[in-house]
Amino acid sequence: MKLNLGSGEDYRLGWVNLDYNEASGPDVVWDMTKLPLPFKDNTFDEIIMIHVLEHFYNPLEIINELWRIGKPGCKITIKVPHWSCHFAYGDLTHKSYFSSRSFSHFNLEKEYYNKEARFSANIKLNCLNARGRFHCQVINALLNPLLNLSFSFTENLLCRIFPIYEIINELTVEKKETIEPLKESPKQNELKS
């Protein structure tokens, strides 16, 4: 199963489309500020959330919830505006701001703010909004590899001159497998006797 969170006008066939706005015709009408989401643990193989997470005060709680409903190995794509782009701070409905490091904390061995969510993360910066515009696609093809060479250089210097449009976070859900206790070998049983 695939989940499109905050689907709005991006209704996708073959996906479960969830949105708070009933007028956009989602499969599930749900306010994502009300957690937990109306799905069982380990339900989805793929989840997308395209320019939605920045509208919430609680992105950490929502990300933890995505981990809960994603199966082990679930692919999650979250796109958010980069903090340097005027789209990030120019929209009064945006409540959270993101950098390339915002999602890297979930790769740590220890818990991040008492959240059990763990992902392997592939994070990319995208220079321009290229929706259907050939010149923007060309600029992205040329500049995106440069932006992604060093996030520190890009975010500490380069994006102050040339703002970055968005961050693409490709996450893979990691969950600890249930480990069955090892069966004792006959040799270990003999030692106990």
How are the strands of the biggest sheet laid out side by side?
A: 3-2-1-4-5-7-6
CATH superfamily: Vaccinia Virus protein VP39
Question: Largest sheet at a glance?
Answer: 7 strands, mixed
Question: Based on the structure given, which CATH architecture is correct?
Answer: 3-Layer(aba) Sandwich
Rough outline: globular
**Which percent range describes the beta-strand content?**
15-25%
- Rg result: 20 Å
Number of helices: 5
Helix content: 10-25%
Quick summary:
The chain has 193 residues and is of the alpha/beta class.
Kindly describe this structure.
- The chain is α/β, with parallel strands linked by helices.
- It has one domain (2-126, 166-177): 3-Layer(aba) Sandwich (Rossmann fold).
- The chain is built from 5 helices and 7 strands.
- It has a 7-stranded mixed β-sheet with strand order 3-2-1-4-5-7-6.
- Strand 4 (44-50), helix 1 and strand 5 (70-81) form a beta-alpha-beta unit.
- The chain is globular, with a radius of gyration of 20 Å.
- The model is unreliable at 178-193 (pLDDT under 50).
